[in-house]
């Protein structure tokens, strides 16, 4: 299934523009394996991919996002 899925059409155009300005991360509700696979399909490298298995909680709880912040080298502000 994941081999047949593609990112939204605009993702491959928008993500490189964003990546030139800020580090990118994903906080997903997928498993570690599926979260990493989905990130690879986006076509740009993400500085962090955080899953509920790693954060201990699912989105929209703050823990996945809080776990991504130090990986990005940034503060919540």
Textual characterization of the structure:
The chain is mainly alpha-helical. Helix content is 43%, strand content 8%. The chain has helices at 11-19, 32-41, 52-55, 63-72; strands at residues 25-27, 48-50. A two-stranded parallel ribbon has the order 1-2. The mean pLDDT is 91.
Per-chain topology:
Blueprint (H helix, E strand, L loop, with lengths): L10 H9 L5 E3 L4 H10 L6 E3 L1 H4 L7 H10 L5
Parallel strand pairs: 1-2
Keywords, please?
4 helices; 8% strand; flat; mainly alpha; two-stranded parallel ribbon; single chain; 77 residues
Summarize this entry quickly.
The protein has 77 residues and is mainly alpha-helical. 43% of the residues lie in helices and 8% in strands.
The proportion of residues forming helix, as a percent range, comes to 40-55%
Question: What's the count of strands?
Answer: 2
Largest sheet: 2 strands, parallel
Helices, by number, come to: 4
Following the backbone from N to C, one meets helices and strands in this order, namely HEHEHH
Q: Spans with pLDDT under 50 lasting ≥5 residues?
A: none
Q: How would you classify the helix and strand content by structural class?
A: mainly alpha
Shape descriptor: flat
Spatial strand arrangement across the major sheet:
1-2
The fraction of residues assigned to DSSP E strands is: 5-15%
First-last Cα distance: 37 Å
Q: What is the multimeric organization of the chains shown?
A: single chain
**Cα gyration radius (Å):** 13 Å
Give the overall average pLDDT: 91
């Amino acid at each position: 299934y994941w081999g047949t899925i593609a990112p939204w059409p605009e993702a491959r155009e928008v993500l490189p523009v964003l990546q030139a300005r800020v580090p990118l991360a994903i906080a997903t509700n997928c498993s570690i394996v599926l979260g990493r696979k989905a990130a690879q399909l986006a076509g740009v490298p993400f500085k962090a991919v955080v899953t509920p298995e790693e954060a201990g909680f699912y989105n929209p709880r703050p823990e996945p996002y809080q776990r991504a912040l130090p990986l990005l080298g940034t503060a919540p502000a």
